[in-house]
Amino acid sequence: MQLRQHLDIPNTLALRSTADYGCEAYSSADVADAQAYAQAHQLAFVPLGEGSNVVLHARVRSFVCLLRSAGIEVLQETAEHVTIRVAAGENWHQFVLHCLRQGWYGLENLTLIPGSVGAAPVQNIGAYGVEIAQFIEAVEVLHPQGEVVALNAAQCRFGYRDSVFKHQPGYTILNVTLRLNKQDAPVFDYPELQAALAEQTEVAAQHVADAVIRIRQRKLPAPEEHPNVGSFFKNPVVSQAQADELNVRIDDLQTYPMEAGSGRVKLSAAQLIDRAGWKEKPGNHVSCWSSQPLVLVNTGGASDVEVFTFAAAIADDIYRRYGVQLELEPSELS
Ligand SMILES: Cc1cc2nc3c(=O)[nH]c(=O)nc-3n(C[C@H](O)[C@H](O)[C@H](O)COP(=O)(O)OP(=O)(O)OC[C@H]3O[C@@H](n4cnc5c(N)ncnc54)[C@H](O)[C@@H]3O)c2cc1C
Fold it and tell me: Are the beta carbons of 211 and 136 closer than 8 angstroms?
């Protein structure tokens, strides 16, 4: 582990951010050394992958450990399934493409999601009707006390964009074990995907991957060209009574059901931001993406203060207009 003072933190929102201390970790031993160093110096220890789901302050007073470990290992293979162990530092999209080339299926709907394999279980990444939790056998983590433990899928407590790792920071994911299919049985009942594949007589996993890439490229700004961290706010959950009241004020209010009997519904943060006119109101060096206003884009050299100021202005306005509190979707790191 090569310790660095003043580590510049790479992030897809292209914010300038420097951690007081940090390192790049190429192995589990590097991560353990880094964690031990941080603990010995009373520094908060923060594992990061590619910085595609964090909003960073200019100065980060923690020890930031950038996971850069590599390796994809087959643990078991039958005619139907393959079980593979993947290092946390592998790039997620490249890993999905590798699986397709090998004839390992299931992850094709999750293609082009930015970030690392190690971060993928943290928010149980999902898209187009599939989430990583469906394939997870085990997640190997470094515990704050220093031992390495393997959590099975139940212990990871996966939920919608949620897992134990969001609520119990301090676990660093070292490796992820997945069980994938060797039969090409694509899932494409998600309406947008179904429509994109309507003309395809026989649909294979590769067609799904290609369609997902086309849809994502059309809808979402590529971080390399338009720096962003995907959805900036969570979709808010409100009571059915509040949704009924908003339904009178907002045409075609989009609502998504929650668990039966909860009396709560999820709203579309994008719709609220759109209806409040924020697509037409850029901030300083930051604006809402025109075809997906939930995504805030750094339009050139934005500072952390400019991004947080713009986000706060949107959230305040939505609260004033609709009484709905928007919350940040990515992690905030200072
Ligand atoms: C354009 C765009 C589109 C996106 N689309 C989707 C989508 O469709 N679906 C979806 O689910 N997400 C999406 N995201 C969010 C993002 O891709 C995922 O959250 C991704 O898993 C983040 O990976 P990362 O390596 O960049 O994580 P980072 O941003 O580096 O870290 C994110 C969080 O995970 C923690 N973390 C990172 N690595 C580890 C580790 N090894 N152990 C423990 N904790 C760790 C960090 O401390 C931090 O809290 C999108 C993002 C962008 C920019």
Answer: no
